């Protein structure tokens, strides 16, 4: 049996407050739902949250990524969703994460600064390679998935 080709998809969006009381609760809620959905769909990835912006790398079969993006664009916690690119990949970068994630903290400021995001995420300057590299560096600091 052959497995479906793998792709990485990178998108940005703006956090729309309202469903939960604070940003940390929003991130936890998104990660919880993502882990449930992604495990069944064979999707892995990493979500970055900084004040009002999301950056996310998703990876898996193309049809599963398309279905995942369909859910994201319908999710009222996201607005102005913009897919930066979808590219084929030989292997997963986030194979251990059905969905990892982090909310920017002061300890991570040097990592963000190294990618030109010292003052915050500028979605207009985010590009595919930068987001993937930033997510890899942040995931290396994150706790191992359970």
Automatic annotation (TrEMBL):
<protein>
    <submittedName>
        <fullName>BLUF domain-containing protein</fullName>
    </submittedName>
</protein>
<dbReference type="InterPro" id="IPR036046">
    <property type="entry name" value="Acylphosphatase-like_dom_sf"/>
</dbReference>
<dbReference type="Pfam" id="PF04940">
    <property type="entry name" value="BLUF"/>
</dbReference>
<feature type="domain" description="BLUF">
    <location>
        <begin position="6"/>
        <end position="100"/>
    </location>
</feature>
<dbReference type="InterPro" id="IPR007024">
    <property type="entry name" value="BLUF_domain"/>
</dbReference>
């Amino acid at each position: 049996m052959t497995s479906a080709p793998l792709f990485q998809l990178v998108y940005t969006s703006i956090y729309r407050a309202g469903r939960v009381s604070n940003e940390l609760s929003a991130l936890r809620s998104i990660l919880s739902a993502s882990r449930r959905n992604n495990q069944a769909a064979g999707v892995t990835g990493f979500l970055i949250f900084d004040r009002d912006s999301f950056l996310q790398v998703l990876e898996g079969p193309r049809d599963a990524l398309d279905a995942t993006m369909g859910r994201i664009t319908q999710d009222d916690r996201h607005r102005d969703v913009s897919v930066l690119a979808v590219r084929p990949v030989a292997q997963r970068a986030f194979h251990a994460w059905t969905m990892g994630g982090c909310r920017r903290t002061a300890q991570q400021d040097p990592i963000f600064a190294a990618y030109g995001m010292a003052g915050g995420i500028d979605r207009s300057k985010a590009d595919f390679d930068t987001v993937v590299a930033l997510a890899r560096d942040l995931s290396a600091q994150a706790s191992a998935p359970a």
